Amino acid sequence: MRIILAPDKFKGSADAQEVAAALEKGLRSASAQPDTLDIVAIPVADGGEGTVQAALSAGYSSRTLTVTGPVGLPVEAVYAALDDTTATPTAVIEMSQASGLDALPRDADGDPLLDALGAGSRGTGELIAHALEQGAQRIILGVGGSACTDGGTGMLTALGARFLDAAGEQLAGGGGALRDLARVDLSGLSPAVAGAEFVLAADVDNPLLGAQGAAAVFGPQKGAEGAQVAALEEGLTRWRDRAEEALGSAAGQVALAPGAGAAGGLGFAALAVLGAHRRPGIDVVLELVRLAERIEGASLVITGEGSLDAQSLGGKAPLGVLRTAQAASIPTIVVCGRSLLPPQQLREAGFAAVHTLLERAEDARSSMAEAPRLLQEVGAEIGQQLFASRHPDPAQQTDPYPVAGG
């Protein structure tokens, strides 16, 4: 029996590899012949945190660098590189590693020290610069979990761009400084940028500006309140205007494009300056890990993420895995920390079953703290139902997990 485990992370509890490992342990515990099970772990992500890990699990090599963190302190970041000489040299870069909330310094309680106006994306640009120097011709830029709202200007600075005030001086980093932006100089941009293909792996479709833009929607998650949100919006507006002067009116249209507001407006910089094309993050990751190819012949696929909600059915990892499995007529179970969706809606979406950790725990806090143990319990329950249906006589076998919605 072949079972595919393709979960995303359970944020705050376990990364995707840990989720898969716990489920596998539970599944094997329910089998009378655990060594005969062919269980394949394929960690996935939606373009944010976990994207590099997914690429590494698919055979990419790791590259570790010390780069400029979101508030200027050095941080260690990893990106993934494809060394296969028969394919296009590719690097998978996860913005959150260098410029994300997880890269911020912490207070005594372990909470991130947010800097809504001062945080920047320079470290992400340093990762890109290194990958280009190493010969990468294709850069997959996974965005999500960013700590900054600088419109990607820090990233571009690391690649040779200059952002100047009225006196011709280079601006300090961070979105707040963009209110003083008078001119953009792209003449020093690395020539390697023009020779590379950039893919913006983003699961949000927000524009750069306005009520649905980077500052208004995501600024508060990074510590911005009231006047700070307005200051970030003003800075991003000036960046849009100066980009039009430097690149032409097309840059103004790019600011309206879906994904321009991703990662604090880094999406705009990637689309307008790097010439990136945007793709849903989960689609990019499922291609990286070759899920469609690797699930062939499987009896069951198990996916999951920390919280199932309306966004999950709009293009997050579980839905992407489900659609791939449906195309191969393989039933799919979803496991989550909690579900904000009614079971009927999940069945209509196509999931054969849903299991939540919260229903096994006293409260949300304990379900997160005890996630590995609870995931093992879920794996064991799934295994018991699955293996009990396998009768030696094929005519008497039952199917506890039929393909739904395919």
List the helices and strands and how they pair.
Layout: E1 2-7, H1 16-29, E2 38-41, H2 51-57, E3 61-68, E4 74-82, E5 90-94, H3 95-99, H4 122-133, E6 138-142, H5 153-158, E7 162-164, E8 183-185, H6 191-194, E9 197-201, H7 214-218, H8 227-247, H9 250-254, H10 262-272, E10 277-279, H11 281-288, H12 291-294, E11 300-308, H13 317-327, E12 332-339, H14 343-349, E13 353-356, H15 364-369, H16 371-388
Parallel strand pairs: 1-2, 1-11, 5-6, 6-9, 9-10, 11-12, 12-13
Antiparallel strand pairs: 3-4, 4-5, 7-8
Family: Belongs to the glycerate kinase type-1 family.
Pfam families: Gly_kinase
Keywords: Kinase, Transferase
Q: pLDDT average, as an integer?
A: 92
Largest sheet: 6 strands, mixed
Instruction: Give the C-alpha Rg.
Output: 22 Å
The number of helical runs is 16
Q: Could you give the order of the helices and strands?
A: EHEHEEEHHEHEEHEHHHHEHHEHEHEHH
Q: Give the low-confidence spans.
A: none
The CATH topology of the largest domain = Glycerate kinase, domain 2
Strand content: 15-25%
Number of domains: 2
Beta-strand segment tally: 13
- Bulk shape: elongated
Helix fraction, binned, reads 25-40%
For this structure, what is the CATH class of the largest domain? Alpha Beta
* Distance between the first and last residues' Cα: 22 Å
- What is the H level of CATH, i.e. the homologous superfamily of the largest domain? Glycerate kinase, domain 2
Coarse structural class: alpha/beta
Query: What is the name of the CATH architecture of the largest domain?
Result: Alpha-Beta Complex
Enumerate the strands of the largest sheet in spatial order, edge to edge or round the barrel: 3-4-5-6-9-10
